[in-house]
Specification:
The structure is a single chain. The chain is α/β, with parallel strands linked by helices. It has four domains: 152 residues, 3-Layer(aba) Sandwich (Rossmann fold); 74 residues, no CATH class; 152 residues, no CATH class; 130 residues, no CATH class. It has 25 helices and 17 strands. The strands form four sheets. The protein has a six-stranded parallel beta sheet with strand order 3-2-7-8-1-9, with helices on both faces. A six-stranded parallel beta sheet has the order 14-13-15-16-12-17. β5 and β6 form a beta hairpin. α1 packs parallel to α2, α16 runs antiparallel to α17 and α20 packs across α21.
Length: 579
Amino acid sequence: MTDILAVSPAEKEGIRALSEIEKCIANKRCFRLEAGAGAGKTYSLVKTLEHLIELEGRRMPRLNQRIACITFTNVAQKEIEAQIDKNPLIHCDTIHGFCWSIISGYQSQLRSILPELGAWKERLEETGGAGSRRVEYTLGYRRVSDDAISLHHDDILPLKIELLKFQKFRNIFRHLYPIILIDEYQDTNSDWIEAIKEQYLDKEDPPLFGFFGDHWQKIYGKGCGELIHPAIKEIGKGANFRSVSTIVDCLNRMRPELEQFVEDPEKPGEIHVFHTNNWNGARLTGAHYGGDLPDDEASLALSNVKNKLLEQGWDFSAGTTKILMLTHRALGKQQGYSSLPSLFRYNDSFTKKENAHIAFFVDHLEPACQAFSDKKFGAMFLALGIKGKYISKLSDKKSWSQSMTRLNELRNSGTVAEVIKHLRETKNPPLPDSVEKVETKLSGFDFESGEDLPRALDELKKLHDVKYQEIVSLANYLDGHSPFETKHGVKGAQFENVLVILGRGWNQYNFNEMLEWAGTGNVPAGKTNKYENNRNLFYVACSRPKKRLALLFTQELSVSAKQTVSAWFGAENVSAIEI
């Protein structure tokens, strides 16, 4: 038995939360562990799995049953599997991988449902329907061949949701997985969570669901956010094993309803908040940039803040300090993709790869080009979602080699248009349907008609003129090879020191506005989602450091916003930075 009197305040909270989880399991009660930043959510999840392995390790395998552990990323999946020694009782996978493992055996049902999905209706009509083709999931492009239908990952959850509507399927699923744990529940697809509520939680005797996460850390648009349901017991974990009390005290003032306790209350820490309100020059205007500093002055403010912090003993080496930039305008300039933030109307087009061209370049073409350069040809075709049948004779190998060699030359010296032209001509590799379709629309547009160019085509036309090296820089940034990050790039990470740059240029974020609303507690009608998106990103960024946190507001702060900052971080820690 652990001597609870000998452990730290944070450890006491962890022990209490695990005890509550074990009670829910004993009573077959669904639960939700709300674990704030640094609380050790993954630790609690692994301990819960170990408890279940001990309880069910003999009984469930005899019944051909397993425990599902659904993760948000492949990295999280591997981390959890390593900590439970890949115990066969636990089926640990991402939500897409897990759902496909369940639905892949229902081929006839998938073929009947697919034509009802918007992305497939026209495509299947053109090929004479699904027929008897095999439905497969290869993480490639949507494609219909003579004998197979290849799914995109965006197809998997809608198919699972449709199948959940059938009671027989629900019963089989429930028997196979009577216990289902979901990691990072707040970022889990909201439609899928709603289906779980409707088809299981709203009915008697559902599987035992355990949800692990924190709705204040929901920063992905399609996530469900806070999960509340009468069948789910909420368990708060008020621990913080990451940050010193100087930082945790600020987080508690920001979020008093989930008070956190630290491991060692005596550990020293630092907080510095810098604003640029004293600068008297003309600030940027417009809905996206209004109130922010011009680029040169923003860069100078950052340089001056870094010098101030160096005087305070900060170490800005990559392994010690991370600079989080919550604006892609400034980040793009630093990272080498300065054209993209002004090219796209929505930053999600390139930051979350919602634009088909960006998704193809970053997720497929760039990894394929790197694999080709490394002479890893199997990995090249895997990155492209192409099977080996594309290479059937020596001339095919020669054609691919010449095409990829020329492609690498264009990546270094050409524009996006030149890369696209090369791919359309050689078809090695082929463009995905989503890219080819919009390229065809642009090339067929009658510019003499007097009609306005649709926004998607206008963005593509501008993207054509961009040097492809900007795409390479974006891919490197999104892959984590950068001294700078946005918080979306380091979710779940922690660093010794963190410097957060808060400005404009990201259409859905306005931190001055968020701070005003937080201070008054009055969020205007219809603005709740916007407020929570801003608040969550701010909270997540501020909760990354272990010892030292600094904030730089390049956006001008109103009087009420400054009051909120002072209330959260301490007026003595807030000062103006001269430019």
